[in-house]
Specification:
This protein is of the alpha/beta class. The chain contains ten helices and 17 strands.
Length: about 425
């Protein structure tokens, strides 16, 4: 009866129930094995936020963070430039980011082992390889679960938000921790304002409440409770002042230009506004990195200038506003690209030795972690695994590294499974 009701971001009741099915009606038996921070008072802003800059398709680390100009066969067309971090050099097509490298760290020795788009995306978001017996929560949903609820019931913005794409799901943590999707930060959010009068909306909500309470009283599982919670928070967000965080028109035109008048640049600006408002996790997606052909032209004329303006201005803006110490910024994709340049002038999938970037959130900045050989093929110093990256994110966000959940089927799952934070970053 209520399939016509739509949440902001475009999730219908039917779509919601479809998601619930994929998470196996999660959480009815979940037991926390971690203690909440006893000093966190209801209604106070969490001390930490994380912005994930997600490069869908597999970005070329060889042409961004780990150039090899001395390699005749693998080096490519770009030259490295000096940055604000002594001894750290990056691509000439990232001059704005280069000015902010004193705040950031490059891990140049990641071995993620997964060279498939879907599997790599899942692993980099969760720390785990896909498994048919369990759907792991993405790290943004972990932050929503662990930190978001500390903001209290009066905080009406979602705790996890994904811009320009849906993001990875909450797995067994349940749909209340699924990322809220902003499809296009340069346009109004769909369905954010009611299309009917206040009186009619109130009557509809009363009917919905009757149906949900009746359904929930029949002990139909966690899905019913999640549905009610999602809609309750949606209505609160629609009817309050909280949507101002999404309104980029409130920003100076000069700053919007500086970020870049495109979906990624404006998404980065929106991310800054959201963490400034207290949101725990924001993912900003920039797709189109799967460059098997003509990679150097595509990077220099399009992708790298777009990344440079958005990412560089974001870090600068956070630092100038005093937000960088409490906001971690992480740049990654599902894998890197081959050191070897193929016959079509592109690079192929490469998870064996590639780079991620992270900074802020109380981390030290301006450091290089690990190294690859002169051709970029082998890790020759300090190999880092995906769980080590997750451990760095958890430590930076003040998540207990021993945090463990029990899935509805009784399986223990750790947020950090054998990973260790990189000591030099903290």
């Amino acid at each position: 009866m209520f399939d016509h009701l739509i949440t902001p971001g475009g999730m219908s009741r039917r779509h919601f129930l479809g998601h619930m099915a994929t998470t196996a009606m999660a959480v009815p038996a979940m037991q926390l094995m971690t203690a909440m921070n006893a000093q966190a008072a209801a209604g106070t802003k969490t001390t930490k936020s994380l912005i994930l800059l997600w490069m869908g398709g597999g970005p070329s680390h060889m042409d961004t963070w780990d150039l090899k100009p001395e390699s005749e066969k693998n080096g490519g067309e770009f030259k490295p430039i000096q940055t604000s971090a002594p001894g750290v050099m990056i691509s000439e097509h990232l001059p704005i980011v280069a000015q902010q490298m004193k705040h950031l760290n490059i891990i140049r020795s990641l071995n993620s082992k997964e060279g498939n788009h879907d599997r790599g995306t899942y692993m980099m978001h969760t720390g785990y390889a896909p498994n048919p017996t369990v759907v792991h929560p993405a790290f943004g949903s972990v932050l929503s679960y662990e930190l978001g609820e500390k903001l209290g019931p009066d905080f009406a913005l979602p705790h996890a938000i994904s811009i320009n794409g849906p993001g990875e799901g909450p797995g067994f943590l349940g749909m209340t921790h699924a990322p809220f999707m902003v499809q296009n930060p340069t346009a109004p959010i769909a369905n954010l304002k009611p299309s009917v009068s206040d009186d009619r909306l109130e009557r509809r909500l009363q009917m919905l409440s009757l149906a949900e309470n009746s359904f929930g009283s029949q002990k139909r599982g966690q899905g019913a409770a999640d549905h009610k919670a999602v809609y309750s928070k949606t209505i609160k967000m629609m009817s309050g002042p909280y949507t101002k965080a999404f309104q980029l028109d409130n920003e100076p035109a000069e700053l919007r230009d500086k970020y870049g008048r495109n979906s990624f640049g404006q998404g980065c600006l929106m991310a800054r506004r959201l963490v400034e408002s207290g949101v725990t996790f924001v993912e900003v997606q920039l797709g189109g990195w799967d460059m098997h052909n003509d990679i150097f032209n595509a990077l220099s004329s399009n992708k790298l200038p777009e990344l440079d303006k958005g990412m560089g201005t974001l870090v600068e803006d956070l630092a100038q506003r005093g937000l960088l110490d409490s906001t971690m910024v992480v740049w990654m994709g599902e894998f890197g690209r081959t050191p070897r340049i193929n016959q079509n002038g592109g690079r192929d999938h490469w998870p064996r030795s590639w780079s991620v970037v992270m900074g802020g959130g109380g981390m030290k900045g301006g450091q290089l972690i690990g190294a690859t050989d002169k051709d970029g093929v082998e890790v020759i110093d300090r190999e880092v695994g995906v769980m080590d990256v997750i451990a760095c994110m958890a430590k930076g966000m003040d998540i207990d590294l021993a945090t463990e959940y029990t899935t509805p089927r009784g399986r223990p799952i750790k947020v950090v499974d054998n990973g260790k934070p990189i000591a030099e970053l903290f």
